[in-house]
Amino acid sequence: MMGPRQVAQGALFYEFSLEDHVPPDHLLRSIDRFVALGGMRAHLAPFYSSTGRPSIDPELMIRMLIVGYAFGIRSERRLCEEVHLNLAHRWFCRLDLTDAVPDHSTFSKNRHGRFRDSNLFRHLFEQVLARCIAEGLVGGESFGADASLIKADASRYTKVDFSDWSAADAANRATQEYLDTLDDAAFGAATPVKPKAISPADPAARLTGANGDRPFFAYSTNYLVDLDHAIIVDVEATAPIRQAEVGAVRDMLVRTQDRFDLHPWMLAADTAYGAAEMLGWLVKEQGIEPHIPVFDKSERKDGAFPATDFTYDPDTDAYKCPGGKELRPYWRNISKGRPAFGKDGVKKYYARKQDCAACPLKPRCTPNQATRKIARSRHEDARQKARDIAKTDAYVASSYARKKVEMLFAHLKRIIGLDRLRLRGPNGAKDEFHLAATVQNLRKLAKLRPNPV
């Protein structure tokens, strides 16, 4: 028997509860237990006027942003539409069926104003991290660090030569932020080398071809990750320059210790972080074992003995070559004192000309020069410690564990959808990176601490 035709009929009264229509296993229901925004109003209170019309509830905007990053909704206009239509989104945002959804322009107004002035997204990230620590998901003993390139909202087809570019009198927001960060070690002061090309839309973004594809303008998101459960303990935005990325890891390690008393005994990273200065800082100042490949250029292209084949004797401050001869900084008495290391932090050791000339190993040691010389960094002891660690089983285990950081970047780009920025300027990059890292930690909390049955 065919059923009757269904015709919509308006009812005088409805009994409807959003709570009953959100499934128990829904992602937002799992995340909601760990989103405590009660202190946000007190944090933002100094940035609101005491007079005038009431503003949109900041907690509502924060919850809507969490929804957007949790489900890869990058457009704020589309986010407002999704929250308007989706019952689970309305439930998470504490909106009833008849409550109006804020206009998308409200986000821009608050993001460029009180949210940024109050450093709200950093505060939100640290609040979620504190919950991860309270739930026992952060061991605080082994950390991993890495950086990933994120495309900027700038087209490579509109680039101009850096020498031909100048800021307009009425600079846009991204240009003003670029000018403000010229002395920032994470951006303008990361390297004295000036870029060849610049984007007028986002001057702080750097043109890079590091991915092996066509060059593009980008920023770097830097993660410091606890390797126990892959919880992000800090995040930082920098220019896509190795010096800036290394400096960001140092800043994040110090900040994490100051704010959460987390000080790892081991840091795992790739070769980009294996420079002598970084290894020396980790070993001597922080007491952290560097599970990092040494950034080493001692291998010879002409097939000659590398520097690692020469043995250093700290008692005599001399190297011994494979032929048994010594290399010293000086072979005569120096009456006037000289600094032990040069401005580049390196001390050079030289063999005697007569020793090299009579040595049968000279064609394999120094075929193109009369004598052999060795350069030793002031942090060579830290470099040697990193080499010794690289021979252990613990290093093999940490190398596998470090892949958790790369998996977080894959999740960031594929699931969160942050393969290209929507906001411009250094502050826009910071906002997006902090929000994305916050949502990644929330998703991890929801996975490892599910709702009780």
Q: Describe it for me?
A:
- The structure is a single chain.
- The strands form three sheets. Strands 1, 4, 5, 6, 7 and 8 form a six-stranded mixed β-sheet that branches. A five-stranded antiparallel β-sheet has the order 9-10-11-12-13.
- Helices cover 38% and strands 14% of the residues.
- The protein folds into three domains: 18-118, no CATH class; 139-294 and 387-430, no CATH class; 313-378, no CATH class.
- The protein starts with 26 loop residues before the first helix and ends in a 5-residue tail after the last helix.
- The protein has helices at 27-32, 40-44, 58-70, 76-85, 87-92, 105-117, 120-134, 173-180, 242-260, 276-286, 353-357, 362-365, 380-389, 393-401, 403-414, 425-448, and strands at 142-151, 160-161, 197-198, 206-208, 216-226, 231-238, 266-268, 289-291, 311-313, 318-320, 326-328, 346-351, 373-377.
- The chain is built from 16 helices and 13 strands.
- With 453 residues, the protein is of the alpha+beta class.
